[in-house]
Amino acid sequence: MSLVKQKNTRPELVVRSFLHRQGFRFRLHGKSLPGKPDIVLPKYRAVILVHGCFWHGHKAKSCKLSRIPKSHIEFWTNKISSNFTRDQANIGKLKTLGWKVLVIWECEIGNMEKLVSLVEQLRQMDITATHGKPGSRKTMLQ
Ligand SMILES: [Zn+2]
Q: What's the gap in Å between 5 CA and the centre of ligand 1?
């Protein structure tokens, strides 16, 4: 897996610093929210879950990080499927509370397009957008 340079940075830190450079401000580990989401953006009423592929059971075929070890298969399968179930329950609860939930997987972090599309999704969710922000002037001049 020499293709992926992991450095020392955890996936969550990569996402956080990317968002920060893009001008987003957020809170970390919203303790009052189901599952304590990694990144909370109150202005967007959105949370971002940065999921480690192995522990959270990433099901994408392209994912090479979520393979179950060959020993103790049953243990790992149970463990990971219960994590997965818990994640789904938390996501359901968050949505019920009116939060938008974005999930980014560890194996997607190195993909700049993925991060850019995450940012685009967030910008569309900006609940304060009507108060004007850079860029809105263009639309006014049309
Ligand atoms: Zn993955």
A: 15
Predicted TM-score (pTM) above 0.85: no
Flag whether 138 is in a domain: no
For residue 71, what are the domain limits? 11-127
Query: Model confidence over 92-102: pLDDT tens digits?
Result: 999 999 999 99
- pLDDT tens profile 77-113: 999 999 999 999 999 999 999 999 999 999 999 888 9
DSSP reduced 3-state for 33: coil
Measured distance CA(133)–CA(126) in Å, rounded = 10
4 CA to middle of ligand 1, Å?
Answer: 12
Tell me, yes or no, whether 6 lies in a domain.
no
Terminal Cα distance for the chain, rounded: 49
| CATH number (domain holding residue 119) | 3.40.960.10
Structural domain includes residue 45: yes
C-alpha 139 – ligand 1 centre gap (Å) = 39
Domain count, the chain: 1
Q: Name the β-bridge partners of 74.
A: none
Looking at residue 9, what is its pLDDT?
54
Taking residue 86's Cβ as centre, other Cβ atoms within 10 Å add up to 13
**Cα(142) to centroid(ligand 1), Å:** 43
